Every structure is written in structure tokens, then in C-alpha cells.
């Protein structure tokens, strides 16, 4: 799918979301977003910052995917990308949720992030699920092997 087709799909989904949300909510979270590309059933959408990315992932991803289903006629996974993520490698790390691992280590809030990680992992293609689960297992082993 071309970038133009990805943008058209996103714009149609935005029309759908505008009808579903209050004007202030739509303006706060969706205004200024843009489709980057469509790859392997995932639509990468650029957002202004990490706060918006995290909020959209946690609060609106399912609703957006329903909008994409309505406009595209097939399941499309949305991946929100922080505009500050400048390289493809950083974008892919965000797509598979490695930020959750670092948050778990920094904030010591395993229950909250474990739930978030579960739903994020569940939305990934099987090969990425396997890689993520292995990485999380290694990080958890390291975290729990520390003294004190």
C-alpha cells in the first residue's frame, strides 16, 4: 500500500472518530496526527509526542482499529509513533512495546505495566510476540536477580 493510500485510510478513520468522540477529545488527541505507512497489516500513525502516543495506545487503540475496520473492510492494527522517534529502528521498538520494559524497570509498577504489556503483545504478529516475550523474560530475570 502506498503512503498516499495509507493517508487516505487514516483520514477516513479520522472522520469516523470525529463522529464518535466529543469535539474537545478529538481535537486534543487526534488533531495533527498523520499516517506514515501501512506495512504487514499495521498502519503507522505519527503523533506529536510520547504523551499522546501513550494515551492513544491505552485509551483509543481498539476504537481506532474498529474505525479502520469500518473504512478498510479488514482488520488493521494501528501503531502510534512518537514524532520524536527519528529512525526506523526507534519506530519499530515503539511498535513492539519495548518502552513498557523500561517503564517497568524505572517505576517498579509491575502489575500496571504487566497488564499493558499483555495487551500490547497480544496485538503483535506471532514472530514479534515471541521476540518480545523472550526479551521480557530476560529483563524480568535480571530485575528479580538484583539484591534487595
Short description:
With 148 residues, the protein is α+β, with helices and mostly antiparallel strands.
Give an overview in words.
- The protein is of the alpha+beta class and 148 residues long.
- The chain folds into two domains: 1-85, GMP Synthetase, Chain A, domain 3, CATH 3.30.300.180; 97-148.
- It is 68% helix and 12% strand.
- The protein is built from seven helices and three strands; from the N terminus they run ααββαβαααα.
- The chain has helices spanning 3-20, 23-29, 50-72, 88-96, 98-107, 110-122, 126-145; strands at 34-39, 42-47, 77-82.
- A three-stranded mixed sheet has the order 1-2-3.
- A hairpin with a 2-residue loop joins β1 and β2.
- α1 packs across α3 (50-72) and α5 runs antiparallel to α6 (110-122).
- It is globular.
- The mean pLDDT is 78.
What characteristics describe this protein?
single chain; 148 residues; alpha+beta; GMP Synthetase, Chain A, domain 3; 2 domains; three-stranded mixed sheet; 68% helix; globular; DnaA_N_dom
Order of neighbouring strands in the sheet with most strands: 1-2-3
Structural class: alpha+beta
Total of DSSP H or I helical runs spanning 4+ residues: 7
- Arithmetic mean of pLDDT: 78
The percentage helix is 55-70%
Overall tally of domains: 2
CA-to-CA gap between the ends? 51 Å
- Helices and strands, in N-to-C order? HHEEHEHHHH
Q: What is the assigned CATH homologous superfamily of the largest domain?
A: DnaA, N-terminal domain
**Name given to the CATH architecture of the largest domain:** 2-Layer Sandwich
CATH topology title of the largest domain: GMP Synthetase, Chain A, domain 3
How would you describe the shape?
globular
Task: State Rg.
Answer: 16 Å
Beta-strand content estimate: 5-15%
Major sheet size, sense and barrel closure: 3 strands, mixed
**Low-confidence sequence ranges:** none
